[in-house]
Amino acid sequence: MKTVLLQGGRLITAAGVIEADLRVSNGIIAEIGKSLAPATGELVIDVSGQWVGPGFVDLHTHLREPGDEAAETISSGARAGIVGGFTALLGMPNTQPALDNVALVSFVLAEGKRTPITIAVAGAITQGRQGEQLAPMAEMAGLGVQIFTDDGSGVQSAGVMRRALSYAKPLGVRLAQHCEDATLAGAGVMNEGALAESLGLQGRSGISEEIMVQRDIDLVRSTGSRMHFLHLSTARSIDLVVAAKVEGLDITCEVTPHHLTLDESTCATYDPIFKVHPPLRSSHDVLALREALRRGLIDAVATDHAPHAPESKDRAFDEAPAGMLGLETAASLTFEALGQEKCDPELFFSVLSRGPARIAKLQKNNELHGLSAQGGELLVGEEANLTVFNPMATWTVDARALQSRASNTPFDGRVMTGRVSAVIAKGTLVLHEGKLQ
Ligand SMILES: [Zn+2]
Predict the structure, then answer these.
(1) Nearest-CA neighbor of 254 among 273, 274, 278?
(2) What is the model's pTM?
(3) Contact 336, 289 (CB under 8 A)
(4) What is the pLDDT of residue 369?
(5) Which residue ranges form the domains of the chain, and what is each CATH number?
(6) What are the distances in angstroms from CA 409 to CA 111, 148, 152, 417?
(7) 304 an active-site residue?
(8) 3-class DSSP string for 228-276
(9) In this model, does residue 83 exceed pLDDT 90?
(10) Which among 230, 424, 416 is positioned nearest to 332, based on CA atoms?
(11) How far apart are alpha carbons 270 and 128 in whole angstroms?
């Protein structure tokens, strides 16, 4: 494990931003201070003007293994994560079969330990994600699983969701909901409205999301349990969550980089690369999401990284599967949504690292789970899980050059500002000058 000296960076500590050097030795943050002298044999990295903060944590990664290894594997997903600045990923349970039991969760955790970063797992709320019988959440919680979700679809039955919340409460775990009422979302493929009508594409309404957000807030209130809302996409959803937080309910939420930077007008190309659930919304919704993010009302930016093998995405808009890649472009897009030169580095690391780490309970070293601590404070003695972000860098997205096995990014060819330059995961330098080590 090589000793690394990060020189001249802006350190985003939990107590504020300071300009200092930072040394990583024996896997931990060994020293922080001004003008640290390089030690013999040490790798010195000049990070002048760059931001050094806790490694990013993605609450919403579709790793696709087991079941769809043509699209992604745990190993390739981890590589994509590292390039994107992530030192921890939470794998979603809508694999084939679904992660609804101890054996499958153990498999993903074990495969995750073979990667350089931390792979945590979300378990399914219901057996087979069918929305009917509860999955053995207590047994999975025994492995350290902290988040449960049927993501890919929402739990449609209010009665099942209420039972799940009551079951989850004494376990101390958090349920996460993909909010879409299936009877309202129907077979819609893009945001409902005048544009969908003019394009002759079936609409998927905002109210299909909002009605489930409202329902689940009421269920959280009645059970005293806790909830995380995945990939919220409308202004109204954010208003509902903000009001519930003011009320004191234990509710958290995330938005995705794509809902912060793309709107429904992209669907006019009929290119299924822009098809995602929930769909890209109106420009009004995009502005409302950005405003809420900038005001610190959103707990996390999460990617909803959804790889699809080329042959499956290469179909007509109506027929193509929903979802787009996210890991390798998330930091630049979050930086964009936060106003680039106006971007507050503390808020940036709050939504990409400390917020999601807190929600997934990854901040403390989870001995049972065997996972390293994330979203740290940047204190001497902490295990080093660090990301260096260069706000001055520009780069062009090349779908063919991504680490993901898939290439379904809607940002191919787009010039981005701000890029992850280095990542230290579990004390080891795994990305240097933007390249995997
Ligand atoms: Zn989802």
Answers:
(1) 278
(2) 0.97
(3) no
(4) 65
(5) 4-51+379-400+411-436 (2.30.40.10), 55-359 (3.20.20.140)
(6) 25, 27, 19, 17
(7) yes
(8) EECCCCCHHHHHHHHHHHHHCCCEEEEECHHHHHCCHHHHHHCCHHHCC
(9) yes
(10) 416
(11) 33
Helices 74-84 and 102-113, axial angle in degrees (round to 10): 50
Q: Do residues 371 and 361 make contact, with C-beta atoms less than 8 angstroms apart?
A: no
Give ∠ CA 351-354-357 in degrees, rounded to 5. Answer: 105
Instruction: Select which of 304, 344, 398, 412 is catalytic.
Output: 304
How many residues in total does the chain contain? Answer: 437
If you measure from the C-alpha of residue 153 to the centroid of ligand 1, how many angstroms do you get, rounded to a whole number? Answer: 6
Res 397: pLDDT: 98
C-alpha 82/C-alpha 61 separation (Å) is 13
Collect all residues with Cβ–Cβ distance below 8 Å to 331 and sequence separation of at least 6.
Answer: 56, 84, 85, 352, 387, 389, 418, 419, 420
Cis amide leading into 93 (omega within 30): no
Task: Calculate how far, in angstroms, residue 177's C-alpha sits from the geometric centre of ligand 1.
Answer: 8
143-198 confidence digits (pLDDT tens): 999 999 999 999 999 999 999 999 999 999 999 999 999 999 999 999 999 999 99
Find the mean pLDDT for residues 262-267: 98
Write the single-letter amino acid at 332.
S
- What's the 276 CA to ligand 1 centre distance in angstroms? 9
User: For 335-377, how does the pLDDT look when each residue is reduced to its tens digit (9 = 90+)?
Assistant: 999 999 999 999 999 999 999 999 999 987 665 566 789 999 9
Distance 151 CA to ligand 1 centre (A): 5
Residue type, 292: A
- Is residue 20 scored above 90 in pLDDT? yes
